[in-house]
Amino acid sequence: MTDRIELRGLRVLAVCGALPEERERPQPFAVDLDVAVDLAPAGRSDELADTVDYGTLARAVARVAAEGRFTLMERLAQRIAEEVGGDARVESVTVAVHKLRPPVPVDLASAGVRISRTFRS
After folding, report:
1. Contact, 25 vs 60, CB < 8 A?
2. How confident is the model at residue 120, as a pLDDT?
3. What's the average model confidence in pLDDT over 108-118?
4. Dihedral through CA 98, CA 101, CA 106, CA 110, nearest 10?
5. What is the mean pLDDT of residues 44-56?
6. In the annotation, is 32 catalytic?
7. Which one is catalytic: 64, 99, 108, 119?
């Protein structure tokens, strides 16, 4: 499948980190999604019901980030992928999670992970 819905730079707050101070309060993250889904039905009909609503995707990502507590960004990305893959129309998803204030003693804009998961082929 080459059709994709793309979300870029979704800002969320999440409790995610291995250090004790990171586990006490939410931190800012940016999330990118590439969702493989057949967009032909929506292209023909021009109806929102015939696609995966990117607003619904964004709210789902924000909910996963807000409700969970994670040690690793890998787990946060996995939970987002599982939530997105819950829609039967989604064939696969790539999730990138970027910690915007990584706690390192050097000038680092962000640290992140990118995972890809396939649900249907």
Report:
1. no
2. 77
3. 96
4. 20
5. 97
6. no
7. 99
**E runs forming strands in the chain:** 4-16, 27-36, 69-70, 92-99, 111-118
Cα of 72 vs its chain's centroid, Å: 14
Whether 40 and 89 have beta carbons less than 8 Å apart is answered as no
Task: Give the helix/strand (H/E) hosting 76.
Answer: helix 73-85
**Secondary structure (3-state) at 53:** coil
Confidence of residue 121 (pLDDT cuts 50, 70, 90): low
State the DSSP H helix or E strand holding residue 61, giving kind and residue range, or none if neither: helix 54-67
Q: What would the two tokens of residue 113 be?
A: 């992970």
Among 28-37, 53-62, 112-121, the range scoring the smallest mean pLDDT is 112-121
- Tell me what pLDDT residue 1 has: 59
Which residues contact residue 75 at a Cβ distance below 8 angstroms, ignoring those fewer than 6 apart?
none
Q: For 46, left (φ over 0), alpha (ψ -120 to 50), or beta?
A: left
> Do residues 95 and 31 lie in contact, with contact meaning Cβ atoms separated by under 8 Å?
yes
**CB neighbours of 100 closer than 8 A, spacing ≥ 6?**
27, 28, 29, 30, 109, 110
